[in-house]
């Protein structure tokens, strides 16, 4: 390989500098916010009883970790989210395939799916509680309800936009509709499926927390509602912070998975 | 030589809510075994439709299409179709791309795979069998696509403007390659194209279609007095220009 020219080196330098600045500013902003919050609470610029403070949150978290309750709440929310996500993936893919196989059925069901998808799912949660009772099933269903309709619609759109010419190729090779599904449509839309799923895991978390708001005795959603009722706002804010972290980690995890899958393709 | 393909009084129309488009009107022609036929015509005249009919993807509204005297409905396996683009799947290696047809028809027996291996070796793709399609040149991709079609060992090969997606340089050499392969494998071929020189350089016989609804306007038998013809040699032959002008006039004659 030839040595990079001076201008190439300059270019690389600029790119690197920019990347460093972005990373530094992100970290700085985060720390600035945390310190400001703490200082504001310390000097009573804000009422730390209702706004809490980073230190109080950390203390609360430490205490609850000691008695094991925090781990339990996180574990409950996390497992409910993962279960409902798994079910969304399975139901979403299967139903989207079904719709793709039966164009007339999908035409008939389209308005229903669109309505269900745009319906605010939090409106369903009270119904689910009444119908199914306040238990884990309800919460998982609430988690699914937020993500599943969008998943079906998005996947179905992906499937039906997959190349008709490639499907023709399968038919010229003597294949059937099933072959076009297995050899063209599914493998060709793996990247889309993965990116849809990446968004969905966050939606499942939203649904699970909504479910926990009204029908749970455990989980971070419960902790938020309970904390607000008994004015333990340290709990509320701590739970929100933890939810942020969980959402970020789940997204990153699926991002990793996506990258790994795409690399293998 | 016996007639391999018979197209008898075939007509076809596309239907939509806004009305019907009569595409083919009473097309008849016969093609002998081992022959290389070309069908030329103005764009949008239904050339591709005709190929889709011959390979059984569409059903004619009137008329019949026979292979060896039998209706093509039961003889689909004996017909290979090569599309305008190679449509190699990026998520498969070249080898698994050319095996696609065998995989679909569950014919991955030694009898077929050995033939595929041999073709890959003969036509310069053996060393590339494990790479992804994007790493091949346009010409190599087209050869891979042809092997994918030939893997099923069809007797009749349908070529639907197989070079139209390539740039001119590549096109000439791929045309040469594909012609050599088809002749070596002793296949009967029907080529559809709007490129007159391409049709003349490869075909033994040319059918000129009219505008929609298409009929066969003229049939021209080509003879270059060569023992072993190749598309390039034909392009340089003195008769080439005469045939070109003849067909050109035929296509541009407004009736």
UniProtKB/TrEMBL annotation, chain A:
Signal peptide: none annotated. It is found in: Cell membrane. Residues 74-254 form the ABC transmembrane type-1 domain. It is a multi-pass membrane protein. Its main location: membrane. The keyword Membrane applies. The keyword Isomerase does not apply. InterPro entries: MetI-like, MetI-like_sf. Pfam families: BPD_transp_1. Keywords: Cell membrane, Membrane, Transmembrane, Transmembrane helix, Transport. The chain crosses the membrane at residues 82-102, 114-133, 139-159, 193-215, 235-254. PANTHER family: ABC TRANSPORTER PERMEASE, ALKANE SULFONATE ABC TRANSPORTER-RELATED, MEMBRANE SUBUNIT. Belongs to the binding-protein-dependent transport system permease family. This is ABC transporter permease. The lineage of its organism: Bacteria, Bacillati, Bacillota, Clostridia, Lachnospirales.
Automatic annotation (TrEMBL), chain B:
Residues 5-236 form the ABC transporter domain. SUPFAM superfamilies: P-loop containing nucleoside triphosphate hydrolases (SSF52540). InterPro entries: AAA+_ATPase, ABC_transporter-like_ATP-bd, ABC_transporter-like_CS, ABC_transporter_ATP-bind, P-loop_NTPase. GO terms for molecular function: ATP binding. Keywords: ATP-binding, Nucleotide-binding, Transport. CDD domains: ABC_NrtD_SsuB_transporters. Pfam families: ABC_tran (PF00005). Coiled coil: none annotated. The keyword Protease does not apply. The keyword Nucleotide-binding applies. It comes from the Bacteria. This is ABC transporter ATP-binding protein. It comes from Hominisplanchenecus faecis.
């Amino acid at each position: 390989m030839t040595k990079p020219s001076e201008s190439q080196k300059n270019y690389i330098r600029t790119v690197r500098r920019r990347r460093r600045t972005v990373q530094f500013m992100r970290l700085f902003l985060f720390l600035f916010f945390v310190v400001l919050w703490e200082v504001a609470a310390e000097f009573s610029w804000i009422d730390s009883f209702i706004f809490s403070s980073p230190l109080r949150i950390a203390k609360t978290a430490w205490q609850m970790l000691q008695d094991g309750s925090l781990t339990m709440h996180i574990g409950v929310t996390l497992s409910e989210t993962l279960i409902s996500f798994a079910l969304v993936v399975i139901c979403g893919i299967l139903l989207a395939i079904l719709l793709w196989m039966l164009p007339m059925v999908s035409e008939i069901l389209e308005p229903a799916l669109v309505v269900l998808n745009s319906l605010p799912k939090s409106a369903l949660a009270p119904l689910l509680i009444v119908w199914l009772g306040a238990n884990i099933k309800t919460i998982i269903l609430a988690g699914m309800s937020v993500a599943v309709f969008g998943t079906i619609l998005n996947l179905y759109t992906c499937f039906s936009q997959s190349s008709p010419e490639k499907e023709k190729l399968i038919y010229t090779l003597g294949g059937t509709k099933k072959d076009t599904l297995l050899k063209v449509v599914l493998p060709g839309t793996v990247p889309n499926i993965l990116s849809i799923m990446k968004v969905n895991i966050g939606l499942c978390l939203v649904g699970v927390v909504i479910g926990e708001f009204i029908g749970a005795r455990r989980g971070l959603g419960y902790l938020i509602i309970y904390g607000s009722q008994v004015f333990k706002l340290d709990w509320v804010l701590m739970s929100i912070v933890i939810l942020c972290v969980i959402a970020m980690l789940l997204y990153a995890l699926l991002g990793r998975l996506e990258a790994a899958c795409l690399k293998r393709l | 030589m016996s007639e391999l393909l018979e197209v008898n009084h075939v007509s076809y129309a596309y239907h939509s809510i806004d009305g019907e488009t009569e595409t083919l009107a009473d097309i008849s022609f016969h093609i002998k075994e081992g022959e290389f036929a070309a069908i030329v015509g103005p764009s949008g005249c239904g050339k591709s439709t005709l190929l889709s009919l011959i390979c059984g993807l569409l059903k004619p509204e009137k008329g019949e299409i026979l292979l060896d005297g039998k209706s093509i409905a039961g003889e689909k396996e004996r017909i290979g179709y090569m599309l305008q683009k190679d449509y190699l799947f990026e998520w498969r290696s070249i080898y698994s791309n050319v095996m696609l047809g065998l995989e679909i028809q569950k014919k991955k027996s030694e009898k077929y795979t050995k033939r595929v291996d041999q073709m890959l070796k003969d036509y310069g793709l053996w060393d590339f069998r494990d790479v992804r399609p994007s790493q091949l040149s346009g010409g190599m991709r087209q050869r891979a696509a042809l092997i994918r079609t030939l893997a099923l060992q069809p007797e009749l090969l349908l070529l639907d403007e197989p070079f139209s997606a390539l740039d001119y340089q590549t096109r000439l050499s791929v045309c040469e390659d594909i012609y050599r392969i088809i002749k070596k494998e002793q296949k009967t071929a029907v080529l559809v194209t709007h490129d007159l020189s391409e049709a003349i350089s490869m075909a033994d016989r040319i059918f000129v279609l009219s505008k929609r609804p298409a009929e066969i306007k003229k049939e021209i038998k080509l003879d270059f007095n060569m023992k072993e013809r190749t598309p390039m040699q034909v392009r340089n032959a003195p008769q080439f220009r005469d045939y070109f002008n003849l067909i050109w006039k035929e296509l541009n004659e407004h009736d």
